[in-house]
Amino acid sequence: MDRERYRAGERASLVGVFGNAALAVLKFVTGVAAGSAALVADALDSLSDAVSSLITWLGMRISQKPADETHPYGHYDAEAIAGLIGSMMLLLLAYELAGHAISRLIEGPREVELYAALVVVLNLAAKAYLSAYTRGVARRIRSPALAASAANFKGDVYTSLAILAGIVANRQGLYLLDPLIALGITLLIFRTAVEIGWKNILNLMGTVPSPEMVRRIEELTREVEGVIDVHRVRVHAMGAYNKVDLHVCVDEDLPLREAHRIAHEVQVRITERIPEVASALVHVEPYDEHHRKVHFNNKK
After folding, report:
1. Which pTM value belongs to this model?
2. Which among 76, 118, 126, 182 has most CB atoms closer than 10 A?
């Protein structure tokens, strides 16, 4: 299953690399020839998307490496690191685009050739496909890096609509609208970069994915025969997967062999029922007088 997951992720990443690279070249050449600052800005955005997809591909390749002595929990965080690098590249791109758009505003009015609109329509259709395709794969394989790419592609669809409106307005004599839309694109790129970066920072810091996952882990644990109580459930994000630590209470007079069996069953149940959990470390405790007082009083 893991191998199939990584193959799907790598394939989606490479589609993003080559698709965005082709669009970047087409839009840049057309933008320069047609005199559209917004289209040139969008071309650079697509170039950034291509590089980000390449980084995502590298992250997927690294994250599938098995655990070793220096990385006992595997290399899953490589995906989140790839997403973070991509967000930093977007921030740099936003800075460059802002300078380009401001220069166009200072230069004064310039008419945009109408054929640029055809390229924008083609780009819109391509980005809509990339967004839907990448989002579908990201959901299926639970990849934070691909989810970030899908969100970026979806934003590009709205960007294309804005550029198309700017070209039409430019042909009507509203020349300043084109560089102003380029500035708007810059702000969208900046916002996307911050959102993607923050999400991956939280992932790398091991932030709990959701309270629902913790509750689900507790429910599955209590279903195991012999478990009296469960507490101290900790979930640590590792890229697309999570590591879980939890404490379970069993009868204090239970033989060690039986306590171990219960712990193993809890571990198997959690990892099998929750696919995004890669490992579960179960600490067994006796439900003695101390635990009865502590946990019973807490629940009351």
Report:
1. 0.60
2. 182
